[in-house]
Amino acid sequence: MKASIQQLPTEVIINIFDQINDAKQLIQCKLVSKSWTSLAEKSMYKTIHMYLWDDSRLERLNHHLKQKPEFCQLIQNILISQQYFYTFSKRLFQEFLSLAMTPSIRTLDGIWKQEYLTMLLDYVESSSLKFKKLKQLPYSVRHDSVYMQLMSHFKESLQTASCSITEKTTLIHQKIIRDSIKEYKYLTTLSIQDYRGFKSVQEIDTFLQKCDRIKNLEFIINQSTTYTYMDEDQLSQWLASGSVQQVDSVNYLKISYMKGPDHMERCSFGPDWINYLAYKYPNVERLSIENITLRYSHMAIPVFGNVKAFSLDDWRFHCTQDLQHFVDRVKSESNSVRYYKCIAVQGSEICSLRATKDRNNSLTKFEIVVGQEKLSNMDIVQSCFKNVNHTSNI
């Protein structure tokens, strides 16, 4: 058996190693045979994930890279996550960038602190190296001059980018951002972070006018409390007027809600912008919606008309009619339903729900969480599936 495994083509072994996310397991793979050592190392150093790291861990990595500089060329992806509670020293992070930022780098991911982005900009502007393979920049809470300069520096290679619109972002600054997006000729994926920035659906449409080559579009939304919404008749008239230019290129749309503001502040939230997106991008085939706003889950249903695959996470229902309507719209020929009990479900909720369907698949998977103390809610949920062909697991 050992001999047969070692006889696998190199490409197959590398692909297997790339699926292993645990560095300790990859170290074990190195010990199997000498021929596997370099292959496992390529996978180990392909992605550097800084998750809750402190200075001591970064210092050890820097030391290791200095001892074996050939490993620096293996690094393709750098991911920083959950690092807002841990701050690297400026000296160590600058040293890390000088080691890890080689022409092999492809993606910079995660939400980077402003000081990290500033150090990154300083490094790439002073470096003689060219980073022609870099496709993605990290997220930034602030879309300021530093981030704009970073995007401009890599405009010849960027395929994925993000921008932040906050309550302090003026309309003039919005124009500067959207005009800059047009410069990136290879940009296909754009994440727009709305931190209470957009005040109306017309403002959203104005911003999106320059994004006519995007294929994958993500909205991360913290709805402004001063957002002025259109009612259904106003929206229909506006769309019928020809003022909104439809874009055929977008085939993947993701909408993520951040927590807050509280539900009382959102009482005037309207369905205009999500119905607007359904009209704006008629060719969306894959849809992902996370953490839909409480009490408004049913408003996203019209978007489902043209999609072939979807992922709907953390949807919460307070009304049996809305839940039944939802189930009827997303069910397939075959369905699987898995129930979970949890104390985290709020008292006014019937349940929270996740539904997924893959492309060219006739199966919809439902994962439903109900409160442990609300057995009657379980009966309500099950009644919504009584006429649905499904298998269930409680």
TrEMBL record:
This is F-box domain-containing protein. The lineage of its organism: Eukaryota, Fungi, Fungi incertae sedis, Mucoromycota, Mucoromycotina. InterPro entries: F-box-like_dom_sf, F-box_dom. PROSITE patterns: FBOX. Residues 2-48 form the F-box domain.
